[in-house]
Amino acid sequence: MTSLSRRSFLIGGVGAVSLATMPQVLRADPLPTGEAAGPPPASDPLPDMTDDEKRFQAEAKKAVRARDPRTEGFGSLQLYRQANGDSMVVKYRTEEGYYRDALAELSWFWRDVADADLAVWIDPALLDFVSSVQSTMAAIHGSMLPFVLTSGYRTPRRNETIEGAARNSQHLYGRAGDFKVPMYPARSIGIAGLAFKGGGVGFYQSFTHLDVGELRCWPRGCNNMVAYNGR
């Protein structure tokens, strides 16, 4: 992993910010165990799932209940960036806290590659949410599958150019990412994500949106599994 400790990156177009200016994050509250997280609430029905997706959902619930999500890959990420071909495999935290250089590297990876490579610090809670989902899918698949990041941080000016994008999108604050995964339908990520109640889960035709805003699921409470507008 190329360290960013000797490289600054831009935050919101305001100016260069070094690693030393990062908010101190040395210890995080642990995620709930799989048993505490439980299955998605009954208010989030997914009636449009195929039989294969229903089986996958059952496996995801079983995997979450059977183990502590902080083990078996939690705290690590395998990522590929669709826009520029970047890839990374990184261990970004332990039980005691986060590696600052790894958070910097992930924040740079999440940058807005379509707007001058501007970047913000990515909320570590988002990384934990994504890592929990990825490690759960790895437990089902039998090995880690890289998540393809299709959209990370967005600058306000680029967000305004995206049709249907929320004006106050969590992408603006480094608290969201859009993902897909090889060999699985994109919405498999969302089905696994619902088991953790980590924040927002949005289902789209070619990707799943994950964020650490309010607990919610869309479109229309996930009564339908695919959205054609909005994100």
Give your account of this protein's structure.
The chain is globular. The protein starts with 8 loop residues before the first strand and ends in a 13-residue tail after the last strand. Mean pLDDT is 75; it is low at 1-45 and 225-231. It contains six helices and nine strands. Helix 2 packs across helix 4 (124-141). It is α+β, with helices and mostly antiparallel strands and 231 residues long. The chain has one domain (48-222): Muramoyl-pentapeptide Carboxypeptidase, domain 2 (2-Layer Sandwich), CATH 3.30.1380.10. A seven-stranded mixed sheet has the order 4-3-5-6-8-7-9. A two-stranded antiparallel ribbon has the order 1-2.
Brief account:
It contains six helices and nine strands. It has helices at 34-37, 51-66, 100-109, 124-141, 156-159, 187-194; strands at residues 9-11, 15-17, 76-81, 87-91, 147-151, 176-180, 200-203, 208-211, 216-218. GO terms for molecular function: metal ion binding; metallopeptidase activity.
Q: What's the structural blueprint in terms of helices and strands?
A:
Blueprint: E1 9-11, E2 15-17, H1 34-37, H2 51-66, E3 76-81, E4 87-91, H3 100-109, H4 124-141, E5 147-151, H5 156-159, E6 176-180, H6 187-194, E7 200-203, E8 208-211, E9 216-218
Parallel strand pairs: 3-5, 7-9
Antiparallel strand pairs: 1-2, 3-4, 5-6, 6-8, 7-8
Helix pairs in contact: 2-4
Cofactor: Zn(2+)
Protein name: Murein endopeptidase K
GO molecular function, one term: metallopeptidase activity
Descriptors:
two-stranded antiparallel sheet; globular; seven-stranded mixed sheet; disordered C terminus; alpha+beta; disordered N terminus; 9 strands; single chain; 231 residues; Muramoyl-pentapeptide Carboxypeptidase, domain 2; 6 helices
